[in-house]
Amino acid sequence: MAHFAKLGNNNIVERVEVVHNNIATDEQAGVDFLNNLYNTEDVWKQTSYNGNIRKNFAGIGYSYDQTRDAFIPPKPYESWILDETTCLWKAPVAYPTDGKEYDWNEDTTSWSEV
Prior knowledge:
Helices cover 11% and strands 33% of the residues. It is mainly beta. The chain folds into two domains: 1-74, no CATH class; 75-114, no CATH class.
């Protein structure tokens, strides 16, 4: 099955639809099918669960970055940094590896033990 993300204002994903591979023989065929189905001229971008199309599987609220040709999740914290390779957000401080559980503390920009 092929998956397509509908983009709204500012290239934010509004929804994700599934189209059978017999119909979505390529991206344009899938886009045409969805626009014909809904009688619209919406912008759709193909996405995939395994990340081999546009880096990450699109979810509602994700943004599509045309320059990177990637879906990027919402930024979880102001201090987090975009990893240009994965287009995922990461903390400015590595997660501790001592086997304990931690949550991110934005006030201190550090990991706090749970």
